[in-house]
Amino acid sequence: MDAEAFIVKKLNGIPDVARRTGTFVGLSNGFAVVNVGNTTITVPCVGFTPPVPGIVVQLERRNGQWVVLGPAVALNPIGTIKAGGSPYATVTVDGTDYVLGYRSSYTPTIGNSVEINWATGIIQGAVTVAPSGSADPNPGAAPTPLSFDPVLASDSGQFRSRWQSNDVRASDSVSGAWFYNGRVSAALAGATVTSIEIYLPLRQALGVCNVGTHGSPTMPGSYTGINGAIPLDPRGGWVALPLSFVAALAAGGGIAVSSGNGDNQWSGTQADRLSGALRFRGTH
Prior knowledge:
single chain, mainly beta, 7% helix
C-alpha cells in the first residue's frame, strides 16, 4: 500500500459525526422535513418517526449524511385543551400549541388537563391529578418536584462596538449574551430552585472564558455588562451554573460570557434553538 492509499484509508476510518437541532416540519415520502436555521432539509429518521410538526429534534451527521435521532428534549406528557374540533384538538403544552388527534372515547373540553402520547401524537384523555409543576392541591403536603422542559432563550448575540451576529462569542474584544424576555420569571413563579444548567452549542474553545448574568430581558442598544462572573468549565453541552445566578434570571435578566484573553464561540439561537436554554430543578 502506497503512502497516499494509506492516508486515505486512515481518513475514511475517522468518524464523521456532528450534532445540531432543528424544527420538525412534517414527513415527505418517509423522510423528515426539518428547518435548520433558515434552511429546510429532508433527511432520514433513524429509529424514530416524529409525529408532531413543530417539535425540536436532534440531528446527527454520520459520514456526511444528516439523520433525525428524535426529540431534542423530553416533551411534557401533560397539556391543556385550548380548542376542540374533529378529528383534531388544539392542546397547549408548556406555552406551545399543538394540533393533535385524540382517542374516540374522549371528547375534548376546553380547559381539560390531558395526557399525550408523543410517540403517536395522540391525546389519551383527561387526567384527574394535578400535572407536575401545578399548584399543590394539598397545602402543607411535601413539596412538589419542579421538573420541566428547558426554558429557551429568545435571542442571543455578540457585542463589539455594536451587536453583531446572532452567534455568541467571548474573545479578546468581543463579549456575548443570551436573552430570555421574561420566560424564566414565568417558569419559576413560586419555585425553589436547587440546580440550574445552560445548554452551550460549542464551536470553539480557546483561552480564558467567564460566565455571569446581566440585567436585560431583551437585547439593548449597548453592551449588557456581566455580573458575578466565574470561570466557564466545561464550555459545551449542558453546563451547571451556580444558584447565585437564579435571582438575576428570575428578575428578567440573562446570561453573559466574556474573555479578554481567548476566543470562544457558540451557535446562536437562529442556528440552534437550544442555544442558551436553561434547565432548572427544584420544588414548588
